[in-house]
Design goal:
mainly alpha
Length: 306
């Protein structure tokens, strides 16, 4: 019979590969990133051994940068719109495929498939749809002729381009979130629904009094997933709009749809300001952590109310 110390040793030996991998891939780069955010790190500074500590200069410059402020603002707006659109669509689809319609399993597969397409490819596909397919529809059908004019292109101005990002994000991610709602809905006891139907409850009353309270925990999970996914949006942003079109903000020309992740990438690799990009990444991490904690806490309270 093995002793308690031997069992503990075995436990840590089995866990060691995972802990080492986590430390090497996550912890060490994260700590180094925080360190580099307080330096003048660029590719040339590192190559010339001119790396030096500059304190909070990168953070101060970040807060003064109009492009970063604009990126932060539109990322928050995009995240709110995307969360609402994805969860509304996903929950609606979940109600559809869990009803007694024919081919419900086929619909589940069809709605989930867009999630399997890579974000870069998806962005290029929808770029073609917005720039070519929809204008062609306007030329064919007179009732949609306004869609064929250059000034009405979806990606032609920042406001409509943000909505295009929301449309693509919803089309891609709603099927995945739908599956979480489907699992939650199918776990609702059938007896509750049957009793409500016998009592004469309408579909809306059953939805409000039974379905929503019983899937409250699923809402907490899906809201968190869509919040994080929306805030970290990068690949679709790159391929669909590349941050454009340009706009004026605080009297400075900037990219109109450059979300935070793309702004960090452009700062670090296009402008070669690696340390400033890292400082923005640290701020991004802190903001996302705080917002996620607030969102989960609010949803937990809502669960109790339901």
């Amino acid at each position: 019979m093995t002793s308690k110390s031997e069992r503990r040793l075995s436990f840590w030996l089995f866990l060691a590969p995972v802990l080492i991998a986590f430390a090497v891939v996550i912890v060490v780069p994260f700590v180094l990133g925080i360190f580099y955010s307080f330096t003048n790190w660029t590719s040339s500074a590192r190559a010339d051994n001119a790396l030096r500590f500059i304190g909070l200069e990168n953070y101060i410059a970040t807060f003064k940068d109009a492009a970063f402020a604009h990126s932060f603002g539109i990322t928050v707006g995009y995240t709110l719109l995307n969360m609402i659109a994805i969860n509304f669509m996903a929950f609606s689809l979940a109600l559809l495929v869990t009803s007694k319609i024919k081919l419900s399993k086929f619909y589940r597969v069809g709605f989930f498939l867009p999630n399997l397409i890579g974000g870069l490819i998806l962005g290029y596909i929808w770029q073609f749809i917005f720039n070519n397919a929809i204008p062609s529809l306007g030329k064919i059908l007179p009732i949609f002729s306004f869609l064929s004019s250059p000034e009405n292109l979806m990606l032609g101005n920042p406001a409509s381009a943000i909505m295009a990002l929301v449309i693509v994000g919803t089309w891609q991610y709603a099927g995945y979130i739908m599956m979480i709602y489907v699992a939650a809905i199918e776990n609702i006891p059938v007896e509750l629904m049957e009793a409500a139907m016998i009592d004469g409850a309408s579909p809306f009353q059953r939805l409000r009094a039974i379905t929503l309270p019983m899937v409250a925990q699923a809402f907490t999970v899906t809201m968190f997933l869509t919040l994080v996914q929306s805030f970290k949006q990068f690949d679709v942003n790159v391929s669909l709009t590349s941050g454009g079109p340009s706009t004026i903000f605080m009297d400075q020309p900037i990219l109109g749809t450059e979300l935070l992740a793309l702004n960090i990438y452009n700062t670090a690799f296009r402008s070669n300001l690696l340390a400033m990009g890292q400082a923005r990444a640290v701020l991004f991490f802190l903001v996302l952590t705080v917002i996620s904690l607030i969102q989960v806490g609010m949803n937990k309270k809502k669960e109790l109310e339901l």
